[in-house]
């Protein structure tokens, strides 16, 4: 396969990452539908052949099998890839300190991930989820210590309020600690919440955004528009009318453009918000379908049609501020 992907810098760093991120949550068959090692090898090889270099996993994915698979599959070529993993989720539900964003869990989680990944460092270490019980000062200082020790190169944060991320990076700036360079959020035509606060905040701080769930849990892949698929995490009857109506518009646009619904959904994420979609696949065929979004440019009419189908509004305060800008600035608002 000819190299397709372009690269961008990760946040305000010089690290170059590909425009599609390979999500390794499907690597392993523990805890549900996933992919065996041999298929994961084919998926990773195909992704690399397309120019992809950014692999995303977490300490808890597939009970640890995901990190172990990534470690085995990257043996001998580790330095060619940017490997990101996450901590926060408990390592042991019976241990009161087995999870969270405090220093103890960070250190033990990091040691576990390094061992599984067969590496002496993590390229991007993500805080997986905001832990309201741990002061953000402790988390940022502990992450900075891991960077100083050479075990982590860059840090990012996933699934946290915008004010938490903003405060964290302001503290890092004031105290000379390593700031977050990346933000990971759920983002798709079915979930545009990140547009309210998180995406504007990321732009202001120069954070690279990676989007998980760009296919809306598979709803936007097209497999639900014709009925209940044989293998699916969701039951069609449990989907809302809104979700099905958006999926139908995605299918219609795909048919008109000679593309697949998954390609349209991924192309919208890339074009609308300039974020890096996380693509997860259980088979090479699924990966190939996702990779083809790189060749698809949605025309303005299609973008408007897709966005209108979502019925999304930014809400307060964004809409209020926009509506009242002429009142505030007068002629200068024109």
TrEMBL record:
Gene3D superfamilies from the UniProt entry: NADP-dependent oxidoreductase domain
Keywords: Oxidoreductase
Domain NADP-dependent oxidoreductase: 19-309
Highest taxon, organism lineage: Bacteria
InterPro entries: AKR (IPR020471), AKR_Detox_Biosynth (IPR050523), NAD(P)_OxRdtase_dom_sf (IPR036812), NADP_OxRdtase_dom (IPR023210)
Family annotation (PANTHER family): NAD(P)-LINKED OXIDOREDUCTASE SUPERFAMILY PROTEIN, NADH-SPECIFIC METHYLGLYOXAL REDUCTASE-RELATED
Protein name: Aldo/keto reductase
The organism's taxonomic lineage, starting at the top: Bacteria, Bacillati, Actinomycetota, Actinomycetes, Propionibacteriales
